[in-house]
């Protein structure tokens, strides 16, 4: 029973650090070309606390959380740096009412 029902799935972002074996590249240069770095489960990342590879299941989640955060960041910087027709289009709703970009400092 305990084996089949897992504990509450953790969605918390864990501190990760680039793998020191492969310098975060996920692959190593072997004699016959690149080979997967098993020290980090071929992810380029290890647990910042233990310095060890995360289990695949956890690793996927952690990478997903980071990717989501990175994607949000990209979208936000796209919005703020947007120029040309798209910016006009996206900006038209935001200006005027004058709320969104005003930080009030
Ligand atoms: Zn590695």
Strand content: 5-15%
Count the DSSP helices. 2
Which small-molecule ligands are present, each listed once? zinc ion
- Model regions low in confidence, pLDDT < 50 over at least 5 residues: none
**Arithmetic mean of pLDDT:** 82
Helix content: 25-40%
The number of distinct β-strands equals 4
What overall form do the CA principal axes indicate? extended
The spatial strand order of the largest sheet comes to: 1-4
Radius of gyration: 21 Å
Kindly report how far apart the N and C termini lie. Answer: 56 Å
Order of helices and strands: EEEEHH
- Major sheet details: 2 strands, antiparallel
* Structure classification: alpha+beta
Which SSEs are present, and which pair or pack?
Layout lengths: L15 E3 L8 E4 L2 E4 L8 E3 L8 H26 L3 H7 L14
Bound molecules: zinc ion.
The site of zinc ion has 8 residues, from loops.
Structure in words:
- With about 100 residues, this protein is an alpha+beta fold.
- It has a domain at about 15-80.
- The chain is about 30% helix and about 15% strand.
- It has two helices and four strands, in the order E-E-E-E-H-H.
- It has helices at about 55-80, 85-90, and strands at about 15-20, 25-30, 35, 45.
- A two-stranded antiparallel ribbon has the order 1-4. A two-stranded antiparallel ribbon has the order 2-3.
- A hairpin with a 2-residue loop joins strand 2 and strand 3 (about 35).
- The longest helix is centred in the middle third of the chain and has 26 residues, at about 55-80.
- It is extended, with a radius of gyration of 21 Å.
- The protein starts with 15 loop residues before the first strand and ends in a 14-residue tail after the last helix.
- The mean pLDDT is about 80.
- It binds zinc ion (ZN).
């Amino acid at each position: 029973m305990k084996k089949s029902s897992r504990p509450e799935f953790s969605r918390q972002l864990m501190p990760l650090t680039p793998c020191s074996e492969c310098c975060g590249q996920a692959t190593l240069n072997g004699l016959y070309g690149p080979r997967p770095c098993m020290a980090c489960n071929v992810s380029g990342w290890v647990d910042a606390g233990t310095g060890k590879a995360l289990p695949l299941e956890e690793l996927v989640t952690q990478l997903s959380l980071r990717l989501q955060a990175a994607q949000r960041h990209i979208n936000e910087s796209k919005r703020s740096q947007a120029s040309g027709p798209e910016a006009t289009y996206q900006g038209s709703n935001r200006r005027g009412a004058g709320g969104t970009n005003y930080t009030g400092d």
